[in-house]
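The material for today's practical consists of a large collection of protein records. An example says more than a description, so a record of this kind follows:
***
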Amino acid sequence: MLRLASAAPLLRRAVPMMASRGLSTLGYNNASETTLENLADQLDGLAERLPTMKQLDASRRAESLLDADYSSGVLTLDIKAAPFGGKSGTFVINKQPPNQQIWLSSPLSGPRRYNLDTTRREWVPCPTTAEGVPPGENIESLLSRELTDMLSIGPVPGTGRILIEPADLEDVDL
């Protein structure tokens, strides 16, 4: 399975002191910004490693199967793998400063809210929105699992040719 690296080591530097009573506004801003920038960098790296649409089908433009854009606290991840037997959809991951959360909207599992676990220094599912999320599954784990599912491109209709098998994404650390 594709694995996105945890932002925990970066969060140790970005938010060196976390009080048990919660985060300061500055601490939240540093932690959420660090996490979203880390995810954006990893997803850009993944996009560069995937074949382009033109490489998969000569009649198409040389677009990426995955586009990640991070701007103003919102990370948008557009996946266009459906024409090739995978899945298409858009993830939106954004900061929610009033509740000090990161919100994720997934085309597979729907909306999720994440709180920063100040002990583990990772974003974990908010208990009220964690239905269907394995216990303790942080934001990077959920994205890794769902991206592997969406980008596992099976036989191309009419050709029987396998483009990207789940094994091709196995243990891809970004």
